[in-house]
Each structure stands twice: as structure tokens, then as C-alpha cells.
Amino acid sequence: MSSIPMPEGLALYLRKITPSSHGSPAALAKRFDDHGAKWVAIGGPWHDEKHRRFGLMNSVDTCKRYADAFFARDILPFIWGYPWIGHEERFADDMDRCAGEYNLGLLDPELGSNPIRATGGPGKARADAHATKLVDLMAERFAGGVVGLSTFGSGVRMRWFPLNAFTRALARRFPRRTFIGGQTYTDDGVIDRSIADFVGCIEKVGGGLRNVALVPNFGTYAKAGKKPDGKTRYRSKTPAEQDAHFLEFIDENEPVTAMIGWAENFMTPALWRSFAKMAERMERGACSLPRS
């Protein structure tokens, strides 16, 4: 790719891809294109030392075939991955192999960036060093590309999470080619606060919104009570819930030019229609209205 633009408009995360549920690369790319998607995040490496899992959500070949199909329809194919502290080299290598020629990456650092949740001292210093090292390695492998970050919607307020370190490193290594955003999937009441917090982080350590873009995360699912084992049950949002959820991102003081949703596996025909309606609104600038 000779010139890589920043993501704009709507996207969805893709987890494990199977032909039986997703169709061929061409068919899946057409579905996204038909509903106005402008970019996509394909699952790559998933590193989880706690459960001794260091593999790929989708093989390198699968990532390439589906990325090629999306790119053929002018949909930017990002690779997203879940990193773990202490395994930065392997993670960056896996991201590079999955992304191939596209050099488009989305980091999803969460618990693995500071498993002991240290808010200070050596533990927090190690988490900050992990963030810096990981971004430095990504910059070596994704030279000239775009690398963003998605994490907890309340990440700014979670003192143990190295968000400032990640943002500072991304701003330094990917100036004007990076973005960050919070995962506000189910609780509409926190969307305003999360966006304001992430904008504050960008202004504080990222050099401002001209240097680091804001890309919030929306949700396509809702919580549906508890399973017999006590774990949370999830279901697809209803069309009314999805429409109301999207409206929360329109009523903002800060412009939102790109968003990504978790996740494609919750999409239904009705939610695809809601997605298409929001994609059209974003293209008309509904999320970029000037402040009142």
C-alpha cells in the first residue's frame, strides 16, 4: 500500500472466522460493503499467559485472504490482537505476519498489560515500560502504517492501566497515524464520560486531536442475566437498542469520525440495517457537528 489513510466511518471486529458462518472472503467483504462499512478489524494474535494461550484467532492465510477481499472493496483491513506483558517481541511478530503488506494494526491491551494491577512502584513502571516497548516494536514492523489502540472505556480512570504510556508512545512513533478509544459496549451512561476522558488523555500526552485521533468503540450486544454457573449471558441488541446506542455517539462535544463495534458475531439482519443507517449518518457528518 503506497498511501494509508486513517480509518473513517463504521467498522466491526471479526473474531474467529469460519467459512460456514462467515462465507467466502468475497461474500463477507460484500456484506460489509453493502451496509456501508469503511474498515474492519480481523482477529490476529491472542496472548494470555494466565491461561497459557499464545496463538492466533485466525491463521495468517485466513487473515490475508479476507484482508485482500476487504481491500478490494476499499474497506481498510486492520489486524487486531490481545497482547501480554513480557511477550512483546512475539506479539509484534505475530501482528506483522497477520497484517502482511497492509501495515494496519489495532492493539487491544487490557489485563495483560498489568496483570497484578499495580498502581505505582515497580509494577506500574513495568507496565509503562511494556507499553512503550510494544509500540516501539510495532513501529519497526509497521513502518509507514497506522496503529491504533482500543481498551477499557474507563481506562483513563483505572490507575493501573498504562494508557498514558501507550498514548505517548503511539503519538511519538505514529504521529498523525494513530488513534485511541474506549470500549463502551453496553452502558450508554458512560459514553460521554469515556469520550471526554480519552480526549483529555490525547490532549495531555498525545499532542492533541490533530496528532492522535479519537475512535470510540460501540457494542452490538446486551447483557441478558446470568447463566446457571453464574457467568453473564449475552444476546444481540434489539434494533431499537442499537439505534439508541448509536445516538449516544452523535450527541457529543467532540467530533467522532470513526467507530468500531464489538462484534460481528452478534450481528443480525435487523442490526445490519441499523448499522447501515448509522454509516450513512456518519458519512453525512452527524457525529462531527460543531459544538453548540
Protein model, in words:
With 292 residues, this protein is α/β, with parallel strands linked by helices. The protein has one domain (9-283): Alpha-Beta Barrel (TIM Barrel). Helices cover 39% and strands 22% of the residues. It contains 9 helices and 12 strands. The chain has helices at 19-22, 25-34, 60-72, 88-99, 121-141, 163-173, 191-205, 239-250, 269-283, and strands at 9-14, 39-48, 53-56, 76-82, 104-107, 146-152, 179-183, 213-214, 217-219, 221-226, 232-236, 258-262. The strands form 2 sheets. Strands 1, 2, 3, 4, 5, 6, 7, 8, 9 and 12 form a 10-stranded mixed beta sheet that branches. Strands 10-11 form a two-stranded antiparallel ribbon. It is globular, with a radius of gyration of 18 Å. It starts with 8 loop residues before the first strand and ends in a 9-residue tail after the last helix. The model has no long low-confidence stretch (mean pLDDT 95).
